[in-house]
């Protein structure tokens, strides 16, 4: 028997002073709304973004900072081709991947080198 009901949020790390790039990448490019959060989080330099299903992506300062590759968030989209076109419009490099075909997915990096996976789930 499990007492867990679902996944709530994931935290990724970024270097000090990351906030302007985070707002441009996660807010403007990915279209995620920035969420209000407890003042203690702001004092530590953190930002929270909301996903359409109510889950959240948190970003926290980590010093010394090292980008994550293997441990990465995988975000869903309904149209991978449209996502890849948007990434190209914003100058964000992507790497489509066919390893799990017929599942369609691509990889990209946030502004600090953390790996992100985008999976198409129509």
From TrEMBL:
Residues 6-121 form the VOC domain. InterPro entries: Glyas_Bleomycin-R_OHBP_Dase, VOC_core. Coiled coil: none annotated. This is Glyoxalase. It comes from Deinococcus rubellus.
């Amino acid at each position: 028997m499990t007492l867990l009901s679902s996944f709530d949020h994931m935290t990724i790390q970024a270097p000090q002073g990351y906030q302007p790039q985070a707002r441009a990448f996660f807010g403007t490019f990915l279209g995620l709304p920035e969420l209000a959060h407890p003042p203690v989080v702001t004092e530590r330099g953190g930002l929270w973004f909301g996903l359409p299903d109510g889950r959240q992506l948190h970003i926290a300062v980590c010093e010394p900072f090292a980008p994550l590759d293997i441990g990465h968030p995988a975000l869903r989209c309904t149209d991978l081709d449209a996502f890849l076109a948007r990434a190209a419009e914003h100058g964000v490099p992507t790497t489509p991947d066919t390893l799990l075909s017929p599942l369609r997915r691509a990889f990209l990096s946030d502004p600090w080198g953390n790996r992100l996976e985008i999976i198409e789930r129509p």
